[in-house]
Design a protein that fits this description.
2 domains; 27 strands; 354 residues; UDP N-Acetylglucosamine Acyltransferase, domain 1; alpha/beta; Spore Coat Polysaccharide Biosynthesis Protein SpsA, Chain A; 7-stranded mixed β-sheet
Length: 354
Amino acid sequence: MIALILIGGVGTRLRPFTCDFPKPLLPVVNRPFLEYQFDVLKRHGVRDVVLCTAYKPGLFHRMLGDGRRLGLRLRYAHERRPLGTGGAVKNALPRPDSTVLVLNGDILHNLDLTAFLGCHRRGRSELTIALTRVKDPTLYGLVETAPDGSVRRFLEKPSWDEVVTNTVNAGAYLFEPGALGRVPSGVAYSLERSLFPHMLEAGARVFGFISRGYWMDIGTVDKYLQVHLDLLRGEAPLDLPARLRRQRLCAGPGVRLGRELSVDGEEGKVFLGERTRVGDFVRFSRYVCVGPGCEIGKGASLEDCVVLRDCRIGDGAALKGCVVGPGCRIGKHAAISAGRALAGGSSLRPYSQL
């Protein structure tokens, strides 16, 4: 089976971090986000992957290459103009000859692909859609299914009075060649808004598979922070360095630690990227991820935050519940409060507050 990953979006909701960097390559606990999807694929024996690119395609080639380093065979299908989710799949595989797995490139999940494929084959389905249960289905595309798993209807971002279930589209699909044959060539076309409802109207066999594993759309700054906290807390059962699972403070190669550091909170966990330098009396609270090449000044405090690579955090600075972009300069005794995000390359003057 071949897998296609849709990674052509510009990541508008995750700005400012996606202005210079595609969302699927943003670091999550100091690994490119896309590598977590690769781990899931490999765990279930999928090695052939096509990346459907549009925004900054050169960065994907540069960072991932042909996939050998990752134990995969990677190919790239580039869109010269936006083609939508359906158009991107058609552009990548004009004439598929076997079952195709399609994944959205901004979802972190541990989908059981083996069980997913088994459901697809048992139902003799032309299309099977992975579903997940959420607390607020009004934010997503709701999918209503019958007791046998067949899809009854799709409802995009329903109002609460329209909600009859909490199962939503999880961004993973299995297609038979005939289903993809319905997608027109060379034009912008949506899987979710065009192909799926049209297949239902035509009486095609369309089934849903409810995934009970972890699922998170990292499309906003809040969700990007949340997925870091979930991984560090162990709530997302995905692959992390073994030492990070064992230690409360995990330091990469070349890290230099000052005196009298503290990690507050019984369940706190801190991950420091390679070559990071930490001054004396720094206090870490709860869950903190610091990228490579950073410098944290004497007496600084960091709580439930993400600091990307090559940042300088001044003496006595305080960061809480925030995301700091790469290459930022935080002045001494400056403070960044919860819910804030600082764009890469920004500077915050000493004693200022954000």
